[in-house]
Amino acid sequence: MSEPVPHAAALRVLGRIDRALPFTSIVTQGSDATVWVGEVASLARSGGDPLEPWRAALQAQQERLHGVPVPPHVPAAFVLQWWCEVAATPLAYAVRLGEGVVVPDPGGLGFELAPGLHPHRIVVDPDRLSLESAPPCGPEPAAPGGRESAARASAEQALELARTAYLRLVEDVVRDFAPDVVMGSRQRWGVVDDVWQTAVRLADGAAGVAVGPAPQRVSCCFIYALPGMRECASCPRGGRN
User: Fold this and answer.
1) How far apart are CA 13 and CA 155, in angstroms?
2) Which residues span the domain enclosing 131?
């Protein structure tokens, strides 16, 4: 079940998420620089490769910075991760900050790139947000322990609803991402899962929840292929401290 979020409430939710984000901003109006998720997904569904220019620009930039040829799977891994972060971030933060399952419409969700070619603004149209909720599971338990258990179950149910909405937003691009790069399904869908887990973990930290060390990733960003770089601690190849 879903219902539109009133404009004033949407602005409040988006403002709260924006204040909690450490490196990215949430803005409510697009510009000529905005790339809209709905348009990218539509091109991908029609058989196009809409993120190829982004990959090519990042590869050229990495080669200028490092002075060596960069294998195409390196920028491809970064771009796929960033694409998923655009969708995962507002969904995960809304849930973990207690705002519920606030889902952007693909046509009202976009991003703008920093000079480093990573998204530094996530654009969310406040008039194209919906609030999703699951059907009630039964009467609320009367005992205090039962209420706490029900609250935990409700929180996990909300998180699963948010994850499902996240998958809907990214899957069309992920399914056939980077046809010019050898990237198996484990890597592609591993990025999807890793980005979601990271977004939830960061959102928990913003909400004041102790998160502990980062879990090992399923996917790899291949940053070790760049001069002077090495695997991160959570790398599936066996990261080093």
Assistant:
1) 17
2) 2-225
Local structure of residue 39 (DSSP, 8 states): H
In-domain check, residue 238: no
Is residue 74 within 8 A of residue 229, CB to CB? The reply is no
Give pLDDT tens digits for 20-66: 999 999 999 999 999 999 999 999 999 999 999 999 999 999 999 99
Amino acid sitting at position 98: G
Q: What is the number of structural domains in the chain?
A: 1
DSSP letter string, 55-108: HHHHHHHHHHHHSS---THHHHHHHHHHHHHHHHHHHHHHHHTT--EEEE-GGG
pLDDT tens, residue by residue, 58-89: 999 999 999 999 999 999 999 999 999 999 99
